[in-house]
Structures are given as structure tokens and as C-alpha cells.
Specification:
The chain is built from eleven helices and 21 strands. It is an alpha/beta fold. Its EC number is 3.5.1.25.
Length: 379
């Protein structure tokens, strides 16, 4: 690891808020932050041409990028982690697709080396988000039709291949409510997703220990005033949930509703191999998908992941939806870290990993990215 610099001046977002000062790092960790507290209004409109220094982005839902897909094996995970690092993501979960068990096993075996050791110029791969196959076959979305029943033994065997940090499941499927506390006891975080379940199913799953919701609004039963559905359960009861803020998956008005209802709503990209690539055809698990006009779709028009990167997610929150920079930054980093119990990431504080991004204050364009003290070449 080569440290690019020992200190940088700017408006630094600490856990207590912005300070105008200096961040110092040593051996991949934040050694010290010095400066005077400032209001967000000064950060946005002050005269000094100091940059923003924000926590590095954390993306818990990444299928691909740079033309590579997590399910393809080989060195795909490294290529994906490098693409997203160039867009400010300093940590991520490599996310699988629903597939036959032997294909999932092969994918996890290929992901294991990237989970053990961070490659140069790459984001840290924290582990795996197992998005399938334990979902409702009636709510596949863009997932291939290989949904199957879950068991604690099978999940433990998959976890032995590569560390599974997050599992998406549909709680209305037979036996899953009873399985949730067992999985939580084994150390897995559980998300509700790809579900046709009712409001009551969602509330019961949260009470059993499920922690959040996978790409809120997408591939789940919607909100009706007499049938609140899974969306209603999330809006009424969730502390955490993913949202894809590409402004295609979810209408800005629905994002505003979720922001008001869910305290720790956090951003994910649900990115595919098409992220960072020109229009054309790409792979998403066993599916062929097409990128056109910023979206990724199956042949029938179904949205199939995204081309979003986390730097654009932040810009969308601030420049399109009007969030304060501090709030948007925490939704692109800190809340996801807290959700996984990562107290040394997602925040700029003494002793934490030196994971941060440097951006201009007007257009929020990336100027520098640092992962564990290593400067990343920015696109």
C-alpha cells in the first residue's frame, strides 16, 4: 500500500458535523482531525475554495461493473471493486443472483480471495450479499427463476466458502419466519425483499429479527390504504432500508416519502456489469441485459439492476432531491456501516480506516478517493 499524502485540508465531515480544518492519516488509519465547526450553509456557500472531505461510500448491493458480473467467477470481483472505487466506493458487498446452487457455490468460491485481501486500487470487498435464491418465485423481478427453499445448513455451507454478511429473503415463504432468528443468532443480517408478503408478514419478520428491506419499493407488494403491503410495513416500522436513487427505479416523490419515514434509509446502486460502460448488451447472472439511456433492462423491459455509481447517488440526493450534504453523505456511507456493525468505516474519526472522498462543493465531482490510505486513480 502506498500512502498518497499524510494530510489534506478542507471541510471535513466528522460524526459531529462539518469542521473547517485538516484530516491527517497514518498507516491507513485516520490519525487526527483538527479544525473549527462550521454550519452546512458555510460549507455550501462560503467563499473559500476548500474541497469537501466525506466518508468513503459504502455500497451493500453490487452485482457488477466495468463489464464484469459477480456470478462469472475468475477475477471479476477485483475488476468490479476497482471500477466502483474510481467512483468513490471504498467498501462494498459483492451481490449474487438467484441461480442453481452449484453456480452460487462456484461464484462464492471465486469471490473468497477478494474478500480475504483487498486488491490494489480497489474497494474493500466486505463479503457477500446473498440476494437469492431464498425469495418468492412470484416476485423475481430481474432474478432468474431458480428460487428455492432455505435451510440453515445450506447457508452455513455457503458461508464457509465466502463470508456472507447479508441475506435477502421473502418472509412469507414456508418456515422462513422461524428461520430468521436462527440466522441472526448465527451472525447473518437479514433483509426482506423479492416478496409478495403482506404488511403483517413484514411486521412479523422485523419482530423476528430481520434488519431491513432490499431495494425498497422494487420487487415487493406495494402500498394500498386498505392493504399496506410490504412497502407499508417498511414505511411504518423500518429503521433501515436500501433505496436505489438512480431516479429510474423509484420516483423522486416516493424517495421523499421513504426519507421522511425511515430514519436510516441508505443508498445502494444495485449496479450491473453495465456500470461504467457504454450502451450495449451485458450479463446479469444468467440473463442477458441491455443498457440504453442510463437504464438496464431485460428483453421484456423489466428493470434489471442499474448503471448507478455512488458518487452519482450522492449528487442525485443533493442536487436533484435537495438533501443537505451531511444527510446525503450519511445515507451513502454511515448508515450502511452502522447497519452491518462496522464502527471503523463510514465515518471520519480518529482510529477509523482512512476511507474518504474529496469532492468539489459546487457540482460534487470527485477529485480524490482514498481507500485504507491508498489513493485511487479517479475516472
Amino acid at each position: 500500500m502506498t500512502e498518497a499524502f499524510s494530510s489534506i485540508d478542507g471541510f471535513v465531515l466528522t460524526p459531529q458535523g462539518f469542521v473547517r480544518g485538516r484530516l491527517e492519516q497514518r498507516e491507513g488509519r485516520i490519525a487526527r482531525i483538527v479544525g473549527e465547526p462550521v454550519a452546512e450553509s458555510e460549507v455550501r456557500h462560503g467563499g473559500a475554495e476548500l474541497p469537501l472531505i466525506l466518508p468513503g461510500f459504502i455500497d451493500l448491493h453490487v452485482h457488477g461493473g466495468g463489464g464484469r458480473d459477480t456470478m462469472e467467477g475468475g477475477d471479476a470481483a477485483v475488476s468490479i471493486a476497482r471500477l466502483h472505487a474510481r467512483h468513490g466506493t471504498t467498501s462494498l458487498l459483492a451481490t449474487t443472483m438467484t441461480a442453481p446452487l452449484d453456480e452460487i457455490s462456484a461464484a462464492l468460491a471465486a469471490l473468497a480471495p477478494a474478500c480475504r485481501e483487498r486488491a490494489p486500487q480497489a474497494a474493500r470487498v466486505l463479503g457477500v450479499h446473498l440476494e437469492g435464491p431464498y425469495i418468492n418465485p412470484g416476485k423475481l423481478g430481474a432474478q432468474p427463476d431458480f428460487a428455492k427453499a432455505a435451510s440453515i445448513e445450506e447457508i452455513a455451507a455457503l458461508n464457509a466458502m465466502a463470508p456472507i454478511r447479508l441475506i435477502t429473503l421473502a418472509p412469507e415463504m414456508p418456515g422462513y419466519l422461524a428461520l430468521i432468528p436462527q440466522l441472526r443468532e448465527a451472525g447473518f443480517q437479514l433483509q426482506i425483499g423479492h416478496t409478495a408478503g403482506t404488511y403483517e408478514d413484514g411486521v412479523a419478520a422485523l419482530r423476528q429479527g430481520a434488519g431491513g428491506f432490499t431495494h425498497l419499493f422494487n420487487a415487493m407488494s406495494g402500498l394500498h390504504h386498505r392493504e399496506p403491503g410490504m412497502v407499508g410495513a417498511a414505511l411504518a416500522h423500518a429503521q433501515y432500508a436500501e433505496i436505489i436513487p438512480d431516479l429510474l427505479h423509484v420516483h423522486p416523490g416516493a424517495i421523499r416519502v421513504a426519507l421522511r419515514a425511515i430514519p436510516c434509509l441508505f443508498c445502494v446502486t444495485d449496479s450491473t456489469a453495465a456500470a461504467g460502460m457504454p450502451d450495449g448488451d451485458y450479463k446479469l447472472g444468467s440473463h442477458k441485459v441491455s443498457k440504453c439511456m442510463g437504464g438496464v433492462r431485460l428483453a421484456d423491459g423489466t428493470l434489471a439492476g442499474s448503471t448507478l455509481t455512488m458518487d452519482q447517488a450522492l449528487r442525485n440526493l443533493v442536487l436533484k432531491l435537495g438533501l443537505e450534504i451531511e444527510d446525503a453523505a450519511r445515507r451513502c456511507s454511515t448508515h450502511a456501516a452502522d447497519y452491518l456493525g462496522l464502527d471503523e468505516r463510514g465515518r471520519l474519526a480518529e482510529g477509523a480506516w482512512a476511507d474518504f472522498v474529496v469532492m468539489d462543493r459546487r457540482e460534487l465531482r470527485l477529485q480524490r478517493v482514498v481507500v485504507e490510505g491508498e489513493e485511487i486513480a479517479v475516472d
